[in-house]
Amino acid sequence: MAGNDLGGLLGTLLGSGNSSDGGNILGALLSALGKQGGNGGNPLGGLLDTLAKSGLAEQKESWLGSGENKAVTGTQIQQALPDDTLQQVAKEAGVSPDQAADALAQELPQAVDRLTPNGEVPASLEELIQQQSL
Fold it and tell me: How far does CA 77 lie from the centroid of its chain?
């Protein structure tokens, strides 16, 4: 599935509030991570692992849990993501890497919260899409 298709799908599934760009930036991120492979075809799980290993474990856990979502900054996202991933996301979304990081910092907490019902990460991207389509 192409990043733009995934971005549009995520934007629709997540109902990304006032910003239609939220789904696009998230789609671009999941697409970029999916192209890198690993994590059994689950870019969301890979993203959460990357964030946790980059010092954002407390934030990640808050997004998975039922309590308040802890915020992250664009700078934290830039430090957590591999530079080539952020460059690819920015290119797909048509924004600068700084803008992409800031947008991801705004969108990720709510998106992860919605994409992980009962605090569990779906086993695959297909399962994630199926859960959101119900």
Answer: 11
